[in-house]
Design goal:
There is one protein chain. By secondary structure, this protein is mainly α. The protein has 16 helices and no strands. The longest helix has 30 residues, at 164-193.
């Protein structure tokens, strides 16, 4: 990653910020910008997100399976509530998990996340009724991802400052690589050994991987009492409000391709055994999208890339997905959308840290993720409702996804211009 160690200082360094929560660093060193523990933490984060967020990125595989098997009597909008609740629980849990991380560090939270993860998968394998899938695969699995995601991402930021976006991008890339592997693995196991044993095998293998990741991740923060959930000064900061508004619009359409691209592939007569590879290609594009723009943003500015990433994600839906009728064209859309959406996911966290005072970062990120949790919850079911209203036509749903993301990018651009009106400035 081109990381280097900075010179150590004799005075107490400024608190480190993660974009998730805030820290006081141990007073014996500045940010190391690398080293054994730092790089091991990045590797552990990559592994943690591969098994947790990577599977959440592959929910479209379960969506298509349920529509053809256990929940075939239900409309697509109803089934998508399972995946939407995963996202809502993941985002909404950011604030309380961040506060606990402030007080206790990453290990116990990630261990709890691993236990919840295994329990969720095992219980899902025995589910029969719709409400059981909602509770086990929706709520419990979403919580487990939050318990594994936030502490590992937060720990990276205690080791890096200059190369923070790059290090976060490498760690978060695990979620996209997991999104490549899981659709193929899930579909293969479900067809080979059946739903029950297939899900149990996935859960046990993933659980072992999460245990290894937990042992690898460490933090340099000094434990202290958690900060408040809400800072009243935040509501007077137009930059944060515009960024949050943009994040809400983007989140409303952002996950629709992840949920519905497999079913869309079947809709245009792509064979079932090939349709799941489209989701894998989408996530493969996200691997590069999470690393390359993050590395570039450390040089040219995070906001300078965040707004274009959101705009191009929406444009890809309107320019590519809306007119796609062949497997090759759909694969091209998946790769382009994966790259652009991956950049957005990686860059939004450092952007919030950039416009926040040290004492407000933890509260602001918790607020942002809680706010975004609502449109993330509603986006999938809204898309399913549009699909049902149009009697199986995907056109309105795709337009909805693209327009909301492009609209959100305008709010983000407005926040960037409030920081510096010069378009060529590093922001």
């Amino acid at each position: 990653m081109g990381l280097r160690r900075t010179g150590s200082g004799t005075s107490l360094p400024a608190p480190a910020t993660t974009g998730i929560i805030e820290y006081n660093l141990a007073p014996d060193d500045t940010y190391p910008e690398g080293g054994w523990h730092a790089n091991l933490t990045v590797a552990g984060t990559f592994l943690s997100l591969f098994f947790s967020f990577g599977q959440m990125n592959a929910f479209g595989t379960f969506q298509a399976w349920y529509a053809a098997h256990q929940l075939q009597h239900l409309p697509a909008a109803t089934i998508s509530w399972i995946g939407s609740l995963q996202l809502w629980m993941f985002f909404f849990s950011g604030a309380p998990i961040g506060r606990l991380f402030d007080a206790y560090g990453p290990k116990w939270l990630m261990l709890a996340g691993t236990i919840c993860y295994i329990a969720s998968m095992v219980l899902t394998s025995f589910c029969k009724a719709y409400y059981q899938y909602i509770l086990c695969q929706g709520v419990l699995f979403g919580l487990s991802v939050g318990l594994l995601f936030y502490p590992s991402i937060g720990s990276i930021s205690t080791y890096f400052e200059k190369y923070r976006a790059t290090a976060l991008g490498v760690g978060i890339a695990g979620s996209s690589l997991g999104g490549v592997a899981y659709p193929v693995m899930i579909q293969g196991l479900l067809e080979c050994v059946g739903f029950g044993w297939g899900v149990r095998i996935i859960g046990l293998i993933s659980g072992v991987g999460c245990i290894v990741a937990t042992l690898m991740v460490s933090s340099r923060s000094v434990r202290r009492k958690p900060g408040p959930y809400f800072d009243s000064k935040t509501i007077t900061d137009a930059r944060f409000l515009l960024l949050a508004a943009g994040g809400c619009f983007v989140a409303l359409g952002f996950f629709i391709p992840f949920f519905y691209i497999v079913e869309y592939a079947k809709h245009i007569s792509i064979p079932s055994h090939m349709s799941f590879y489209v989701l894998a290609v989408l996530n493969a594009g996200g691997v590069l999208g999470r690393i390359a723009p993050a590395y570039l943003s450390d040089t040219i500015g995070r906001f300078n890339l965040l707004a274009p990433a959101a705009f191009l994600s929406g444009l890809a839906c309107l320019a590519f997905w809306l007119n796609t009728e062949t497997l090759v064209a759909l694969m091209l859309f998946a790769a382009v959308y994966g790259f652009c959406s991956g950049a957005f996911i990686t860059l939004i966290t450092p952007c919030v840290a950039q416009i926040s005072d040290i004492s407000q970062i933890g509260t602001r990120i918790g607020m942002l993720y809680s706010i975004i949790s609502i449109p993330s919850l509603l986006g999938g079911p809204a898309a399913g409702a549009l699909l049902a209203r149009d009697h199986g036509s995907y056109k309105t749903m795709i337009i909805f996804s693209g327009v909301t993301m492009m609209g959100g990018s305008l709010f983000i651009l407005s926040a960037r211009l409030l920081i510096d009106r010069h378009l060529l400035a590093r922001v």
